[in-house]
């Protein structure tokens, strides 16, 4: 196909035409075999003419075939180029159509996700509001139940004799008023109004109103503690009161400082009246709240110790 293109270029430049003129000129110069028609300037001998190459003959049919082949090749290439262009255009349109469909799907997916998110947030807000209202309702019912229980407890306390009312006030003064009155009264009743055991049980109480320990459970716990070697040890503590008097108290080594505080509280009327008091170590200051949960042995008051009682 490259030779066909070269032939076409040769024809287009006129080389083929010049070549055919050269051939005709050679024929006319050489003339026929008898010398007739010889060109006047072609003065050659007969030997030279006999040794000359045969005249060239140009085949014009050859050029026509080449032109036809070139034209067919050009048409084929044009057809191929048009097919390629059509395919590329079809691919471009298909790509644009696919991208447009993908954009539509992405927009639809984003819109659906936004709607689902808004619905989840709305449902979560509604659930939170419902939960808040439920908590408020339960809290209001609990407050009302406590108020009614407090009224009933106060009514029952008012019906107690003077001795039990005094014990109730003493118990409340030691354990505080963070719990409701009915719980404090229940503690005293379960421990047969024994202040010392009720106070000891209260400070081990976990705050569950439905799980107030009984006197039997407390007694079993004390018996288990007494069986252990540490619990068998005793602590004799000498208390120095503000009025200058002293009095020893005997406790178990595993008793906490709260028990000693209750022991002092039972004797506070004679030196403090209605004023408060605090417990102090001999070589240190006042005992802090955390130390009241420690045992006398942990505080170094076993087997013997001394505590100073000071009025607030």
UniProtKB/TrEMBL annotation:
<dbReference type="Pfam" id="PF14555">
    <property type="entry name" value="UBA_4"/>
</dbReference>
<dbReference type="InterPro" id="IPR009060">
    <property type="entry name" value="UBA-like_sf"/>
</dbReference>
<dbReference type="InterPro" id="IPR029071">
    <property type="entry name" value="Ubiquitin-like_domsf"/>
</dbReference>
<protein>
    <recommendedName>
        <fullName>UBX domain-containing protein</fullName>
    </recommendedName>
</protein>
<keyword id="KW-0496">Mitochondrion</keyword>
<dbReference type="InterPro" id="IPR001012">
    <property type="entry name" value="UBX_dom"/>
</dbReference>
<dbReference type="Pfam" id="PF00789">
    <property type="entry name" value="UBX"/>
</dbReference>
<feature type="domain" description="UBX">
    <location>
        <begin position="230"/>
        <end position="309"/>
    </location>
</feature>
<feature type="region of interest" description="Disordered">
    <location>
        <begin position="110"/>
        <end position="139"/>
    </location>
</feature>
């Amino acid at each position: 196909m490259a030779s066909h293109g070269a032939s076409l270029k040769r024809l287009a430049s006129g080389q083929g035409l010049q070549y055919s003129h050269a051939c005709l000129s050679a024929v006319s110069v050489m003339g026929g075999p008898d010398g007739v028609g010889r060109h006047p300037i072609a003065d050659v001998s007969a030997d030279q003419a006999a040794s000359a190459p045969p005249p060239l003959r140009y085949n014009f049919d050859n050029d026509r075939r080449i032109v036809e082949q070139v034209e067919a090749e050009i048409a084929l290439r044009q057809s191929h180029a048009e097919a390629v262009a059509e395919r590329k255009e079809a691919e471009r349109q298909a790509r644009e159509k696919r991208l447009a469909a993908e954009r539509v799907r992405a927009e639809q997916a984003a819109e659906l996700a936004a709607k689902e998110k808004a619905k989840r947030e709305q449902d979560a807000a509604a659930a939170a509001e419902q939960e808040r209202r439920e908590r408020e309702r339960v809290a209001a019912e609990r407050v009302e139940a406590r108020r009614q229980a407090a009224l009933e407890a106060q009514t029952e306390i008012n019906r107690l004799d003077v001795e039990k009312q005094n014990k109730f006030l003493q118990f409340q003064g030691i354990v505080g008023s963070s719990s409701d009155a009915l719980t404090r009264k229940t503690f005293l009743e379960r421990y047969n109004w024994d202040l010392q055991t009720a106070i000891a049980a209260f400070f081990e109480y976990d705050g569950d109103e439905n799980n107030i320990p009984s006197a039997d459970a407390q007694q079993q716990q004390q018996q288990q503690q007494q069986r252990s070697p540490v619990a068998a040890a005793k602590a004799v503590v000498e208390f120095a009161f503000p009025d200058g008097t002293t009095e020893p108290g005997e406790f178990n080594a595993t008793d906490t400082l709260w028990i000693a505080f209750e022991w002092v509280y039972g004797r506070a009327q004679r030196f403090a009246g209605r004023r408060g008091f605090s417990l102090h170590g001999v070589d240190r200051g006042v005992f802090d709240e955390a130390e009241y949960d420690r045992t006398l042995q942990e505080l170094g008051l076993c087997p013997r110790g001394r505590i100073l009682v000071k009025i607030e």
